[in-house]
Structures are given as C-alpha cells and as structure tokens.
Specification:
Elements: H1 4-15, H2 26-33, H3 37-44, H4 47-70, H5 76-93, H6 95-102, H7 140-159, H8 164-183, H9 195-203, H10 212-220
Length: about 230
C-alpha cells in the first residue's frame, strides 16, 4: 500500500499535467491525495519542499528504471537496449525526467533552488531526513553519468571486459542515442526504434563477444594490456 508521501507526490505530478506549477495549490494536492493539508505540510514543509521532493523522486524513479532494465534477461546488447527503451519512455511520459535529462525547464515546472540550510523555509522535511545541502536539480550530464555508472557496474561484473573504458563509452553512447530518440522520435514514434542502433553500437564495440573487430583487436594486443577504443 502506498504511503501518504507517495500518494501526495503522485497527486502533485498529476496536477502538473494540466496546470503550471505556480497554479498548483497545496490544498488541492492534499485533497486529490485524500489526506489533510497538515499531513502534506508535515511531509514536505511547504510548496518548495514539495517541489524539491518531486524532482528528487523523478531522479530516483528514472535511475531505478535503469537498474531494472539492466537486470533484464540477456547479455550486454539486451540490457543496453532495454535501458535505452526505458530512457525514451521516461523522457516522453514524465515531464520532470525530460527536464532533468535535457536541462529545458519551462515556467510550468517546479525547479527548486539550492536549499541553504535545515531551518530554511520549505527545506526541512522530516520524512525522509532533511537534506540541508541539497544543491537543487541535477545537471543533465550528471544524471546521465549516474545512469552510465549503473550500467557499467551491472554489465562489468558479469563480463569482466578487457576494455572497461570501452564499456563506459558504449553505455554512454546507448544512453545518448536514447535521449536523441526521445527528443526527436522516429517516424513510427515507437520506443523500440532505438533498439537497432543500440545493438549496432554494441556489436561493433570492444564489449561485444561476437564482434569481429573486437576479436581482431584483442589478438593484436599483448597479454595483460588493455587500452580504450
């Protein structure tokens, strides 16, 4: 069963589908969630605290989806293809994920500034604990880096690749391809349209076990040495 905090965040995100953030009222969010306004204030401290929590929730939700995609059955190609498809879907369906990954924040969206201290109005949030040095929304490059780190960690453990740097580059390319498809959809508009490109990249990288180029490159190297592609 979802907590009051989760229900409130869902209600606030739903309100953004039809209203600019400046027109979203705390009393309406509480009513839509079926809780009292006092409960909302207890959870977030104020509207800026709610905005901050919405943005953090978007980050956490996107990265959790990345990890789920990486844990899907299959090898490197399947995992990165699933991650790319999730990125396309997340950007298209969640306005906050789209803003976080592109840096394009419209006036309709909540974009809380840095939280200067635990006692600042709207910054204190008892559940979970307050983040007194919260720097505000992540920059797109930082969120992409965190997603890439999760991909490298998940795929590198199983493969123990000869070229860990090549794996990192391949993961970043897959994510950036996904972002390009999210912003400029293919003619069909389907999430799966990015899959052939991601598979093409992986097959021709040093992290694909079936890549002829990767195999030839490894045979030319001396044992124990590796270098980025």
């Amino acid at each position: 069963m979802p907590t009051a905090r989760e229900v409130l965040l869902d209600a606030a995100l739903s309100a953004l589908a039809t209203l600019p953030w400046t027109s979203v009222r705390m009393v309406d969010v509480a009513a839509a969630a079926g809780v009292s306004r006092q409960t909302l204030h207890n959870e977030f401290g104020g509207k800026d605290g709610l905005a901050r929590a919405l943005v953090r929730d978007a980050v956490d939700g996107y990265l959790a989806g990345v990890e789920r995609a990486l844990g899907s059955a299959g090898g490197t190609e399947d995992a990165l293809t699933a991650t790319a498809a999730w990125t396309v879907r997340a950007v298209r369906t969640n306005v906050l994920v789209r803003a976080l990954l592109t840096g394009c924040w419209s006036e309709r969206l909540p974009r809380p500034g840095p939280c200067p201290g635990p006692l600042a109005a709207g910054c204190a949030s008892p559940v979970p604990g307050p983040r007194s040095t919260d720097p505000g929304p992540l920059a797109p490059a930082e969120l992409l880096r965190r997603a890439g780190e999760r991909a490298v960690a998940a795929l590198g453990v199983e493969r123990s690749p000869r070229d860990p740097e090549a794996l990192a580059v391949t993961c970043e390319i897959a994510l950036r391809l996904a972002l390009s498809y999210a912003l400029v959809p293919a003619a069909t508009g389907a999430e799966g349209e990015v899959a052939p490109l991601v598979r093409h990249v992986v097959e021709r990288s040093a992290v694909s076990g079936t890549s002829r180029r990767a195999g030839a490159r490894s045979r030319r190297r001396s044992p124990g040495r590796s270098r980025p592609v």
